[in-house]
Each structure stands twice: as structure tokens, then as C-alpha cells.
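Deliverable D5.2: sample structural annotation.
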Amino acid sequence: MKRIIFFLTMLFVLISCDDSATDSASLNKYVNRWLYDNMSMLYYWNEKLPAYKSSTDSPDLYFKTLIYKGDRFSAIFESYQDILNSLHGVSEADPGFEYQLYRESDSNNNVVGVVLYNKPGTAASSVLKRGDFFRKINGTQITIDNYSGLLAAFTNSTASFTLSLAERAGEQWSEKSNVTIQKSMNYQENPVFLDTVYTVENKKIGYLVYHFFTNDNGDQSLKYDLVLNEVFGHFKEQRINELVVDLRYNSGGMMSSAVHLGSMLVPDLSADKVYSYTEYNKNFTDYFSSAEYKEEYSDNPFIDNFVTNIAVQKIPATDIPVQNVGNQLSRIYFLTGRRTASASEMVINSLKPYITCVLVGDVTVGKNVGSTLVNDEDNKKNDWAFMPIILQYFNKDWKSDFTNGFVPDFSVSDTYNYSLGDLRESLLNKAVREITGNPSFAPSTTRPRPELNKPIDAKPFGRLIVSKPEIDSFIKH
């Protein structure tokens, strides 16, 4: 069985240390050369890189000059450890809730935020609820020009911050109250947010809210994948015959977790079923096709299959059988949104040839490519890390045609009016109505959300992180 650590980010150690990188300009020059050399080797569009030019510009600015015009997703980060922690759901200081920002109006630059959900075990859970709107952070009105700086209050070293909650009446927003939020320090978020089983009419409906793809908090225990597996074991015991998987806020993560989730869902699970095909640049392809590679490795790096076991490598190593519900289902409902990306889209794309996938919500991001997290372990002065796109993935029918996103079968607005898991909540309610065929199964009261303007993406999204032994071997080669 192929060992997959597909993180939609990958860890590589490349390039020797430059002892002359002692000041800002020389360090930038070193880092930029390091970026270029790595991009030349790894980047999916490496043949479209510009000719190398030495530069002392800030690495984030230099990196932008290397990006192919069709690449929306390669990214650079000033702190390797911070982005690595983020990918595992670990935060030194966490506000305790997830949010979305919107332009308040076309006529001004003000910004309003809405609480999407509270994180379990945080102080925010006692003072905020899904659907709360806020316009000020620490007393300052949020605007297009200052929101990046104000949002730093959510994750900096201070113990707390203040939100000014607001409500809208007609065309005007007004302040309701101020709430002080105590941050959660060294917070570890479990991506399995909610799971339950509903019995509605003659249907037993499993419901899973899954917020990002990561297998553990960095300790190699695969504990979050095992929690996910336990959820599907429970669904199996409950004999569900319908399933709703809520990925509306899931912007991706580890490919290995995406393979595990897909393996829990596919009908007639077997280890010889194709999950995805992979296309790399010429450097990777030539090496993977070489006699040298084939003499040393038996894995086929161009194909990933579904898996029947979760292979835990941490001592004591063990294989945990995958809990699969695919044969209990004739279809799967996926709740999607503007943040649904990458590993989430990979699961949907990989399952489409095997089972009917019904999408409810909004158009997804459209990320059919994967990246890897690159850091420099040889030069400790270089704390930069970057995630270049290194591959494109396809399903077993060689389909990868969703660069504009998956269009939902049922377009439904996320109204934020009810908690996730409440059967009155707009996306879940629509899925249940379609499952039961009962259009009258609807909230007894409806509360339309305020008319909101353009959404603002304040966070990076669309991560498919890939780390595989065969790719490591290419780097060492």
C-alpha cells in the first residue's frame, strides 16, 4: 500500500547555507536565489519562469515576479513554523471563532464581519454566536484600508481584544454592544467539528461538518483521521442511508486525509480502485519514469488508490481498517461555499465516477492543483517558506475540468441565521428537503440575513498539500 502524506503542502530541505547573508539586503538576495532555484526544480509551470535576476527585494515581492499568470494559488509565508502550525490547526493565540468579511456598501470603504462558527472550548463560545456581525475591532471601524492590520489583534500576543457588535436596519448599520474576547492560547482545533444522525420521515441521515484536512496536530499520531474514521464507524452502526458532508468552509489541507475521507465514502471500497491520477513537471516526470527510480521504488507516483487501512507509523505502528459507508448510499450531498477548495474539491472530483454527488450551496473555488511546503533547514536565518504548485490531479476518468469551481446542483445562500447542524439552517435544510422529497420540510420561521455586499477574502485558501516518499526521493536525487 502506498504511503501517502499528501498535505497540500510539502516539506523540502534544499540549497546550502550562505554565510554571507548577514544583513537584510544580503539575506534577501540569498532567499530570492533560494526561491528561484527551488521553483526551477519543483514548480509545475517551471518552463514559464523568467530568466534569473539577482534581487535584494523583499522575498514576498520577488516571489510574485516568478508566478505564472494562470497560477492563483502558489503562496509565500514569512514564518515557516507559523504556516506549518496553521496547516495542523495549531495556533499560539486563537480568537476562538471563524469569520467572513464583507464590504458594507458600494458607497463607502467600511467593512463588516460575520461570525461563521465558534470553536469548541474557547471563550468566544460564551459571548458570540453564529450570525453575529461586528464592525469595529478594539474600537476602530474596520475598512478596506485597515482590515489587515486590525485583524492582527485576533492572533497577536495580547490576551484579549474587543469587538463592537452591530445590526442592520434598512440601509443603516448601528452598534449593539461591545464584547471582550479572551483568546485561546496554544489552541489545537479538531477539523471534525460536528457529526450527528437525523431520522427524518423514513430516512436516516448522517451529517458531518469537516472544516479542514489534517491528520493530526503534527505529532504523527493521525489522531484526527482516526476521529473521522470513528465518525463513519458510528454512521455505519446507525445504518444511515443518506449522508450530508458539510465542506462549505473547508479550503483544503493534506491529501492523505482527503484520500482517507474518500475511502470512507466510495462504494465497493478496494485498494486497487483509482482515487486520482497526477501530472507533474518534466523534472519529476523524467525521474519517476527512469530505470533508476523503478529499481529502487515499487510505487507508481502517477496514481493514488483508495485505501482500506489507515497506516499509523508512530510507535506502536498499526493499521486501522477504514470504516466505509459507501455501500449504504446511493448518493452523497455535499454542502459547498466560496471557501470550498482543493482537498475538498479533490474528494468530490474523485468520488464523482463512483457515486452520485449532489452539491448544495455556492460555487466552489476551482483548485485542481496541489502544492508543497518548502522551507530551508540549512540556513536558520532564512525563516521564509513557500508553497509552489507542483502538480495537477485528475479523477479515474481523467477529469479535472473545474478550474471555475463546481457549480452546485442547488444554489442556496448561507444565511448564518442558525447554528451548524440545526435542521432550519439554510444549506442543511435544503439538502434534507431534497433527500426526503418533502418541500414543506422548512423552517417554521424565516429570518433573511442583511443584504451583504462584496465578500473580502482575508485569509489564504485553497490548499492541497503533498508529501510523498517518491517526491522526497526526487529532491534527494
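Annotation notes: The mean pLDDT is 91. The CA atoms of residues 230 and 248 lie 22 Å apart.
The annotation will be released with the project's public dataset once the embargo ends.
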